[in-house]
Specification:
The complex is a heterotrimer of chains A (687), B (213) and C (302). Chain B has 213 residues and is mainly alpha-helical. Chain B has helices at residues 2-21, 25-46, 51-79, 91-111, 116-119, 123-140, 144-165, 171-199. Chain B contains eight helices and no strands. Chain C has helices at 2-13, 15-30, 39-48, 60-77, 94-115, 119-150, 155-160, 164-169, 171-188, 207-210, 216-241, 249-273, 282-301; one strand at 52-55. The relative contact order of chain C is 0.18. Classes of the chains: A mainly alpha (687), B mainly alpha (213), C mainly alpha (302). Chains in contact: A-C, B-C.
């Protein structure tokens, strides 16, 4: 890697030598990198003016303006970097801090993760203007705006950093800004609790990352990232490095046993923050794992299978949990676990492919993984923003209290429908393209490999897809269809344009990407080729074996056919007599809106089938006699893994640590003694 | 004839699933009888014909297909059981477990150091799968009768393995195994009758009541 | 070219005939004369000329349901080979698109059902999605087995590959596949023993209850779409179950048509001699089908 441009920033002298910056001979990649850095800086400072402006509203508007500019600049340069496929040179800031110079760089992999990041940040910033208007929330708006920009900038820095300590600093800024964003509504006890759980979970992850980078430093004698593919997987520390990466980054990604913080955090944050957290921040965790694996010359054999199994478990249990949820945002959060699971399945396939030297499998797996990352960053923000619009309109997150909203929110409904279809992976939307590559990877493996255990991925994905249909038809149906189940739902109102526009943009991208899968493939292939070190011939073989043009053709003909039949139908109904009446009540004369099938009843049958993941508890009095008294029936679903595994484990740990509590008694002089004792021990320590 | 034997073995494994998934005693007994008959046909398919072999075949079909099922049926009628009502694990989970065990059986069979001519055939995986299904029935069902059936399935699994190992099985060994089984059935029958008379139920999980305090 | 024309005319014209044959078979079993073979066609024509009644609670989703369902089924039908003839459109990975197109149609059928706000239709919708989610893995296990056997990733090659020779060499796994696919066929098309298309007791129905509120042309589209789904899945089933080849193009078409008629008779026989399963037994049977096809895959991949 060559350092053809380096700018020195002397942190003590507080001045920057920019001579080399001015130097002639800038390459295109340098301009692109400068664009991305500028965008990061803009995001970072976007909230600053607002902190000094007294009058509410202006700060938010200025921040939004800056964010939009930054997003346009960032998305443009990131896409350009991805498509050109060559990594930019490393850029060094040579400061005198103990951990050495810090380096930034953008290769296709980084740029691939930056693209949705910048896009979502810009869209969510616009959304916030209407969703969290400064006039109505004078207290929290400044904080929200400032940390929102900081979160985007920090996430981008994580992706650009090429030094362990810089990554950790950016990581911590990201984690903490997310915490402050999440606790915007800090008076609500639920929010406080979610915030605490998030903070603890994220710091457990950070702890693992400290170990990871300490180990790396021990191996390479520098905090700078090792050259890709330079470490041997047979080293003793390799296992430690990979496991800590899985724990540290996996906790942020929300992979199954480490997902406890995720549902409540996503549910309680303001919707555009949830969109950012779910659509982008989870992927930063995935990025970390992918990056760490790239240090090794060959991933160890167990890693691919472990990631594949984790992905399978997350996908299945995540969607099973989602199908049982009643809170709209919690449901979306659980489905994020599922989607991260699918991403991990792709990654696992790819790593197995790389390890066993089956390049086609690696190509399919990695392509599926990356495309799904992009796709999820399109449809999940769309759904979360839609959820925000719905909450904005009805004032509740309980889907069982909604209903019939497609009449009151005629513009939100089709957008939400598009998001639901996309997340189920149904054609002609974009979710299908990513899953297609994973399926084809599995099928190819079934055809050609001698022991094709990977073929099981296909039925697993099919099952997950089937449950996803249950979940999202339940979500869409209960919220938008039928008649309103509560007065709030009956008087809902359409959100303003500033909220609709970002959603429409996402929906448009979902449709375009779904119809023209080639666009997605083009974005992804440079990263795939450079990451898995695949020769162009393999990429060509993969591209030619998946005739995306035929899919485009069929998707278009599907749309045309729908249009044609729809037109024919409308013409027919215009000609023929048409009457309106009440819904056929099957003989019952006075049906009410409360007798409709709720989301809970819709998913009840499925929840019973997925008993290993979802615990169903029913409580109600037993009825007796011909005219029983009024009674309450309660139906609740909880998470089996949490209830049966994690909570008992944590209780045991808590019991073990309760002995330590005796050390904390509030006596000042004893505390001083502790400090003294520690100091003493440290001084005695053999240097 | 290897491929035809393979088809029969697939049938045997399917019958395992029938037994794992059904709650009706009569169906289970009939299934185990069919399994016995199929197994009886197998030696004739893998080994060259001899009178000795014909004798064994008839003996096995008679014992596994007619006598033993008849005896169990008799016991069922006397104890008046129609269904296994409350298994320890439900039917769908047992089915899925059975599927997993069958898959594992194939994996194990890959790993075993077998003679190359045996590797291609289904005998080893079918044997392990049947064995495991037997264990599964034995461990998940409560009624003594179901346990007898599980025991029979287990024995069938061992029988399939035995088919491979000897060119023509010594009659005495096989006869001895069958005799053991027959005695086992008789003992079970008597025990079942007794349990049923004493406790007016043949739920083996209630045998804990016999434990000394 | 001629084959393409025959393909399209068959998928457009033949589906309702299957329903007529099933009805006639059932009537024969019950000792009745039964409606004429062409009755479903008369029904369709009649429905297309009728006016509609719309519920006050419904929106555009309700009207979009039948339209999208029919369109998705039509597109899926162009991907399936009929008999020994490849489908007009065939490319790598079309089997996945095929499966997901049915997912799309299911999404819209259930959405339209939920749009009426009727609790019975909600019930039907919940059952439909739950049961079909159990069917999906079965289909994919079968597809993987077929892909492995034919070493191909297109539906046309996978399904036209089967021949009587395969039945002899891999009979057991083929039998398992056929069993699993037949269960899938019955479940996906809501036939007995899963659902009774003739019943009018809303509490027990699945598909019929979802479309209770549709009327006029929309209901015609639904009936037509359902018949076409039966035809398409039936064609897949017959390709595996009856791989008879005559050698001549027209002869193969004849074999295919006869095969489909036989299939309709078979379904009619099953419906006549079997009772509907209790609702809680249905997942059990579907999981059994999944195990059958998983087992078939295991034998083939080994």
């Amino acid at each position: 890697m060559s350092y053809d441009t380096s700018f020195h920033s002397d942190i003590y002298g507080m001045h920057t030598h920019t001579e080399s910056f001015m130097a002639a001979g800038w390459q295109t990649t340098d301009y692109l990198f400068a664009g991305m850095v500028a965008s990061v800086v803009l995001f970072g400072i976007s909230g600053l003016p607002g902190l000094f402006i007294k009058k509410p509203g202006w700060g938010q508007l200025i921040a939004t303006g800056i964010c939009v500019i930054a997003a346009l600049l960032g998305t443009g340069t990131a896409v350009q970097t991805v498509v050109t496929g060559s990594s930019t040179a490393g850029y060094l800031i040579d400061w005198h801090l103990p951990f050495g110079p810090c380096e930034f760089s953008a290769d296709p992999l980084s740029a691939l993760f930056l693209t949705p990041l910048f896009l979502a940040s810009g869209c969510c910033a616009v959304y916030a203007v209407a969703y969290w208007p400064a006039r109505e929330h004078p207290g929290s708006e400044k904080k929200l705006t400032f940390f929102f920009g900081l979160l985007s900038a920090a996430m981008a820095l994580v992706v650009l950093a090429r030094n362990g300590v810089v990554l950790l600093i950016a990581w911590e800024i990201m984690a903490l800004s997310a915490f402050f964003l999440l606790t915007t509504d800090q008076r609500d006890p639920d929010v406080q609790r979610a915030g605490m759980v998030y903070l603890i979970a994220t710091h457990i992850g950070t702890m693992a990352l400290f170990i990871l980078f300490a180990m790396l430093r021990g191996t390479t004698a520098s905090f700078a990232f090792p050259v890709p593919h330079s470490l041997s997987p047979d080293l003793g520390v390799a296992t430690v490095i990979l496991v800590t990466a899985l724990i540290g980054f996996g906790a942020k990604a929300g992979i199954m046993p480490l997902h406890i913080w995720l549902p409540s955090a996503h549910a309680n944050a303001p919707s555009h923050v949830s969109a950012m957290m779910s659509g982008v921040m989870l992927k930063i965790g995935v990025y970390g794992i992918i990056r760490t694996v790239s240090f090794f010359s060959l991933p160890p054999a167990w890693l691919g299978w472990l990631i594949l199994c984790l992905g399978g478990v997350s996908a299945l249990s995540g969607i099973a949990l989602a199908s049982a949820q009643r809170d709209i945002k919690r449901l979306l959060a659980c489905s994020s676990i599922e989607n991260i699971g699918i991403v991990f399945i792709g990654l696992g396939m790819a790593l197995i492919g790389i390890q066993t030297n089956t390049p086609l499998l690696a190509a399919f797996g990695l392509t599926g993984c990356f495309i799904h990352i992009l796709n999820h960053a399109l449809f999940k923000p769309l759904l979360f923003l839609g959820a925000g619009a719905i909450i904005h309109a009805t004032g509740t997150r309980e889907i069982d209290r909604m209903g019939g909203l497609s009449r009151r929110l005629p513009r939100t409904a089709p957008l939400f429908l598009a998001g639901s279809l996309a997340i189920c992976g149904l054609p002609p939307l974009n979710g299908f393209i990513g899953e297609l590559f994973l399926y084809l990877g599995a099928f190819n493996d079934a055809i050609s490999s001698p022991l094709p255990a990977l073929a099981l991925v296909a039925p697993l994905l099919a099952l997950v897809g089937g449950i996803a249909v249950i979940t999202f038809i339940k979500l869409f149906g209960t919220i938008f269809l039928g008649s309103p189940r509560s007065p709030e739902a009956a008087h809902a109102h359409e959100p303003p344009l500033a909220m609709l526009a970002p959603m429409s943009l996402f929906a448009l991208f979902c449709l375009i990407a779904g119809i023209c899968g080639q666009l997605l493939l083009r974005l992804v292939t440079p990263a795939v080729a450079s990451y898995a070190q695949l020769p162009p011939a393999i990429i060509d073989r993969m591209e030619s074996s998946v005739p995306l043009a035929s899919f485009t053709l069929l998707n278009l003909s599907l749309l045309l056919l729908i249009l044609a039949i729809g037109l024919f139908y409308t013409r027919q109904t215009v000609k023929l007599p048409c009457a309106t009446a009440a819904t056929w009540g099957c003989g019952y004369l006075a049906p009410t809106a409360r007798m409709q099938y709720t989301g809970t009843s819709f998913a009840e049958m499925a929840s019973n089938l997925f008993a290993p993941f979802v615990t169903v508890s029913r409580s109600g009095p037993s009825l007796s006699g011909p005219l029983p008294a009024a009674a309450r029936f309660c139906y609740a679903t909880t998470e089996s893994i949490l209830d049966r595994v994690l909570i008992p484990v944590f209780q045991a740990i808590g019991l073990a640590f309760s002995y330590l509590r005796r050390m904390q008694h509030g006596q000042m002089h004893l505390y001083m003694l502790y400090i003294f004792a520690t100091l003493f021990v440290l001084m005695m320590w053999r240097h | 004839m290897g491929s035809f034997a393979d088809q029969l073995l697939v049938l045997v494994m399917l019958i395992n699933f029938v037994m794992l998934g059904s709650s009706r005693m009569a169906l289970c007994i009939r299934a185990v009888a069919v399994q016995g008959v199929v197994l009886g046909l197998l030696p004739g398919l893998v080994h060259p014909f001899s009178w000795h072999l014909a004798g064994i075949t008839c003996g096995i079909i008679l014992a596994k297909g007619i006598v033993i099922p008849y005896l169990i049926n008799d016991a069922v009628r006397k104890a008046q059981i129609r269904r296994e009502i409350e298994p320890f694990i439900g039917y769908v989970p047992t089915l899925i477990l059975g599927a997993i065990f069958t898959t594992l059986a194939f994996v194990f069979a890959e790993k075993l150091p077998l003679a190359p001519e045996h590797r291609e055939l289904l005998f080893v995986p079918a044997s392990i799968a049947t064995l495991m299904s037997g264990f599964l029935i034995l461990t998940t069902r409560k009624k003594a009768i179901s346990q007898v059936i599980g025991y029979l399935v287990l024995e069938n699994g061992i029988f399939i393995f035995g088919l491979l190992l000897t060119e023509a099985m010594p009659v005495m060994v096989e006869a001895g195994a069958l005799l053991d089984l027959l005695v086992g059935i008789f003992v079970m029958g008597i025990v079942i009758n007794h349990i049923s008379r004493e406790f007016s139920s043949i739920d083996t999980s209630r045998l804990r009541a016999l434990k000394e305090e | 070219m001629i084959d393409t024309i025959i393909h399209f005319s068959l998928i457009l014209l033949m589906p309702p005939l299957l329903l007529g044959i099933i009805g006639k078979t059932k009537a024969a079993f019950a000792g009745r004369v039964g409606a004429p073979f062409l009755q479903p066609y008369y029904d369709l024509v009649k429905l297309l000329q009728k006016g509609s009644v719309f519920s006050e609670t419904t929106t555009w989703v309700f009207r979009a349901g039948p339209v999208v369902t029919l369109a998705a089924t039509l597109v899926a039908a162009t991907l399936v080979p009929l008999g020994n003839h490849s489908a007009p459109i065939s490319f790598t990975g079309d089997m996945i698109l095929f499966a997901y197109l049915f997912g799309l149609s299911r999404f819209f059928t259930t959405a339209a059902a939920l749009d009426t706000g009727s609790s019975f239709e909600g019930m039907g919708a919940a059952r439909e999605v739950t049961f079909s989610c159990l069917v999906e893995p079965t289909l994919f296990f079968a597809l993987i087995s077929l892909a492995r056997m034919s070493k191909s990733l297109t539906l046309s090659t996978m399904l036209t590959y089967t021949s009587p020779g395969i039945w002899i060499t891999a009979g057991a796994s083929m039998l398992l596949l056929v069993g699993a696919l037949f269960i899938t066929l019955l479940a996906e098309n809501c036939r007995i023993p899963f659902d009774d298309p003739n019943t009018h007791l809303e509490l027990t129905m699945i598909h019929e209850v979802m479309v209770l509120d549709h009327s006029g042309p929309a209901f015609g589209y639904i009936l037509y779409g359902a018949a076409m789904k039966l035809f398409v899945l039936g064609a897949i089933f017959m390709n595996i179950a009856l791989p008879a080849r005559t050698g001549s193009s027209l002869g193969d078409w004849g074999v295919f048509v006869v095969g489909m008629i036989l299939l309709a008779v078979l379904i009619g026989v099953v419906e006549s001699i079997m009772a509907r399963l209790r609702l809680i037994r249905i997942p059990q049977l579907l999981i059994a089908a999944t195990i059958l096809s998983a087992f078939a895959m295991l034998l083939i991949l080994r």
